[in-house]
């Protein structure tokens, strides 16, 4: 019997993994990619995380803007059957992706060189608000159109508000069609040759731009716009096509969160936005869930061991016996606190599942790992736990459904 996770990976060619920072989103994306490769698929995991965690976990020296294949021998060493699948990884380079867009749409080599050499562009191509989110979607569009992967897993930028990711193409297209931009273009055409004469440009432009840029930066901006304006139409059409990815039937969003109430609320808010916009929801992965069986098992066993040592060692002095008893009490107290946290996690998950309504069986909790995930074996274990969680959620939903 196939799990919900396996059916999701079979049905979709693209998974967009979204969620707040610090919840294990990159690890979740990598684990989904590993599961896809184990199912025999050719998989690419595209990350925006500049940290080396993912590269190290995949046994790579580093990641760049080009795909690198994960050595199949690493799967063998980890005892993870790979069959006919293959796993590739890539880290988004925002500037390189933006440069590629310029090269694609420039009308001539001279126009391309003017833009790439422009000081404003060199700084703004990585610093503009939303540039990372948009370039993540642009790179996704590129690899979908130009590569032959069976499954692409996109690990999106860590965001204060994950909903901003959905609006990145709209914001770029809106900027290219905005009245403010038309005013700037009109000013550039009026100005003709640049120099100190730019101070005589339309006062509306100066009032807007001088709020946040100085004179030299403003001049670079105008030069950039003059060189860039011939490509606006190509960029606008590209942004529209990139936005169309969100409604592709072979794409789904996997939301990753934790049991922290703020992170959980953000994940549920993103789910609500997906529903409002008619976008495909794949799963809500609740990571690092504290479960009661960990506390009542390993912790209680440790307490018993301490107490038995004290009881079976008559040669111990009173001070040593007292010290062992104190340690045992502290472990028992920690056990009790953990039980409270586990109960709180269970209540939050139940409330989130209820909030999802008919999609409640697409909430998949993953237990808190006792160790960091730093290799293929750990990623495979994470994926297996995710698969079992999806199977349990589906079984529970079926059992609670009204019988006809």
Provide an overview of this structure:
The structure is a single chain. By secondary structure, this protein is an alpha/beta fold. The protein folds into two domains: 4-166 and 246-290 and 368-399, Rossmann fold; 293-342. Helix content is 59%, strand content 11%. It contains 17 helices and eight strands. It has an eight-stranded mixed β-sheet with strand order 3-4-2-5-1-6-7-8, with helices on both faces. Strand 6, helix 14 and strand 7 (281-289) form a beta-alpha-beta unit. The longest helix has 39 residues, at 318-356. It is elongated, with a radius of gyration of 27 Å. The relative contact order is 0.15.
Short description, anyone?
By secondary structure, this protein is α/β, with parallel strands linked by helices. Helix content is 59%, strand content 11%.
CATH superfamily of the largest domain: P-loop containing nucleotide triphosphate hydrolases
Number of strands: 8
Largest sheet: 8 strands, mixed
Which fold name corresponds to the CATH topology of the largest domain?
Answer: Rossmann fold
């Amino acid at each position: 019997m196939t799990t919900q996770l396996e059916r999701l990976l079979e049905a979709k060619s693209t998974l967009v993994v979204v969620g707040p920072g610090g919840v294990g989103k990159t690890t979740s994306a990598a684990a989904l990619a590993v599961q896809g490769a184990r199912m025999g698929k050719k998989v690419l995991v595209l990350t925006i995380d500049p940290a080396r965690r993912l590269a190290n976990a995949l046994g790579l020296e580093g990641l760049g803007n080009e795909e690198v294949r994960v050595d199949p021998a690493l799967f063998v060493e980890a005892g993870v059957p790979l069959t006919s699948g293959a796993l590739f990884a890539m880290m988004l380079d925002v500037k390189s992706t933006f440069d590629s867009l310029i090269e694609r749409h420039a009308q001539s080599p001279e126009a391309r060189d003017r833009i790439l050499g422009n000081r404003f562009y060199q700084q703004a191509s990585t610093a503009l608000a939303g540039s990372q989110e948009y370039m993540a979607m642009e790179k996704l569009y590129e690899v979908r159109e130009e590569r032959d992967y069976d499954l692409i897993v996109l690990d999106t930028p860590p965001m204060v508000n994950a909903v901003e990711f959905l609006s990145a193409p709209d914001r770029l297209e809106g900027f290219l069609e905005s009245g403010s931009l038309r005013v700037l273009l009109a000013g550039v055409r009026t100005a003709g040759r640049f120099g100190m004469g730019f101070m005589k440009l339309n006062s509306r432009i100066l009032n807007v731009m001088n709020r946040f840029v100085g004179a030299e930066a403003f001049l670079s901006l105008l030069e950039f716009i003059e060189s860039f304006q011939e490509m606006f139409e190509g960029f606008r059409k590209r942004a529209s096509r990139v936005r169309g990815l969100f409604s592709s039937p072979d794409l789904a969003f996997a939301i990753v969160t934790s049991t922290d109430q703020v992170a959980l609320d953000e994940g549920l808010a993103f789910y609500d936005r997906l529903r409002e916009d008619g976008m495909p929801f794949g799963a809500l992965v609740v990571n690092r869930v504290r479960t009661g069986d960990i506390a009542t098992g390993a912790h209680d066993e440790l307490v018993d061991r301490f107490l038995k040592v004290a009881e079976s060692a008559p040669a111990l002095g009173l001070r040593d016996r007292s010290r062992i008893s104190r340690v045992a009490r502290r472990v028992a107290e920690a056990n009790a606190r953990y039980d409270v946290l586990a109960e709180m996690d269970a209540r939050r998950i139940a409330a989130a599942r209820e909030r999802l309504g008919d999609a409640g069986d697409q909430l998949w909790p993953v237990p808190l790992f006792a160790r960091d995930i730093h290799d293929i074996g750990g990623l495979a274990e994470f994926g297996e736990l995710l698969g079992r969680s999806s199977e349990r959620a589906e079984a529970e939903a079926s059992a609670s459904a009204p019988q006809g």
